[in-house]
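Hello, quick one for you while I still have it in my head. A protein chain has come my way and I'm curious about its shape. Can you walk me through what the tokens say about the fold? No rush at all, and the record is pasted right below.
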Amino acid sequence: MSALQLRLVLETDDIDAALAFYRDALGLPVQEAYEAEGDARVVILGIPSATLEIANRSQIDYIDRVEVGRPAAHAYPLTMRVALEVADAGAATDAAVAGGAQLVAPPTETPWRSLNARLEGPDGVALTLFQELEQSEGDGA
């Protein structure tokens, strides 16, 4: 078996607020939307590429130290953090905060050459916005 698609399903009591954040503030385009009886609604937002990142507790602690400077993952009620690659981490962070996210840590350059911001999105979702930094000619890659 090979998975053909990854969907993270965010359960929320306020779908309009979640859409205002993910669709409007972060710019994720609507791919599909459905309504059913009893006010049931789902909106599927697209991201061009997705990966499933599996990390042990030591790596999570290390990422927290690099991105935030202190343990942060334990502060969230979820055991998962959503990481979205963006073209401009600073602008995306500003848009996310303007859209209702709480800033946990501003964009910070990581040892793996990305610029990562940590936020808490609607409904307490742990969120990293990251920008891949171009490698300099001296990096050898």
In short: DSSP finds three helices and six strands in the chain. Residues 136-141 have pLDDT under 50 and may be disordered.
